Amino acid sequence: MDAKQIKQLRPRLNAYLGQFDDCFARCEPVAHLQTYVLGQLSDLPRKSIEPIADAAGQDPRTLQQFLALHEWDHPRVRDILQQRVAREHPHPCSIGVIDETGHVKKGDKTPGVRRQWCGRLGKVDNCVVTVHMAYAAGDFHCLIDSDLFLPESWDDDRERCRRAKIPNDVMHRPKWQIALELRDRAVANGIRFNWLTFDEHYPMNPEFLFALDDRGQYYIGEVKRTFTGWLAEPALLYKRHPRAKGPAGRFPRLKKKNLPPITLENMLKYSPQLRKIPWEKFHIKDTEKGAMVWEAKAAPIYLKRNGLPTWPHWLVVARNVENPEEIKYFIGYAPAGTPLEVLLHVGFSRWRVERCFEDEKSELGMSHFEVRNYQSLQRHLIVTSITHLFLAEVHKELRGEKSGPDGLPSADGQFRADPLAVGLRPRPQTVLGSRGRDYCRDAEPQPAIAAVPRESQAQAIA
According to DSSP H, which parts of 164-260 are helical? Predict the structure, then answer.
């Protein structure tokens, strides 16, 4: 970045923040927003309210009141931010990434603080946990929404919640339910997620996956090895046998001859269907230690919902070539014919949200908040997303568009090679999706690319 570009950033920042002016009832909080954002963009070692106010020559109480008391519509600020992302950064194969992060705190007054798992430290500690949605489009990514995870101990103590000014309608919700709300809110503001990915903790309750299925959302996310399902579609009984005795029960239902669903770990070890499918090697990414190569295979899997099997989902098993004991299992909902490269590309895209966390915590002071008010915490997270989006847009523009293909499928049902999830030996892909839809919806026409012959996984298993 040269001197001319640096001088141009201040008027550009003013114009960028100007789109939020209508969210404020008075001009004072408009100025405070600019002070807060400039403080986050500064080189202050700690970017909490007091250092930011001192650097701007203001009384710290003004910024405290800006977050806690001043009248401004922060949900609308968030909506405008998401609408800008939808308008300025569309992509035919955008990816939404769901994850949570912990913010270490020493006291007991911060909303939601308690001893719980802190991913930042990799252990249980006194912290606040927030759930986030990241948006990745090509080489662009940013956080577009955040929400507080309120532990059950806080929900059970409503007097403590009142002291932290947590509204009565804010209660304990599982993180997967918060994630669904973040996704729905973004979609309502025009953001299109062609794919969604997440870590293994969210599908621990399969209702999370079923809720995404009901929304028609394509996804590929990691699950635990103890996740269960069937590789072969179970047989169903649709009516009562004429000679059957006892209560009729409900129909359809599983026939008694069906085997119970088994764990993914046992499928990989003992299932003839899965074992006969060959491993395919893929170059995932380059690291300081060299290329990261994984081998993967895919098969249809049926999940159990309300006592009945679902339509076939994806089961993708990936194994680290350098460390064969490291195995990842993914469950996905995607149309038939989706290349395995695409599924791995999405499944291994969680680094995007981790990079967003790293940038916002190290550069913008995301975890530096020192508040005892629920509204202050929510507003701090929203303003931090505003600052991050500005930086992401400037970084993308000054760096220029990345040359070469982006590794995601084109509109004609083909895929483009990319350092992430590139097959080392292209061969016919034998995979099966859940429904025969285009896996890159609403994509613009792309130049013709030579297709890799494919056959259905069902034919390969037969």
Answer: 175-188, 207-214
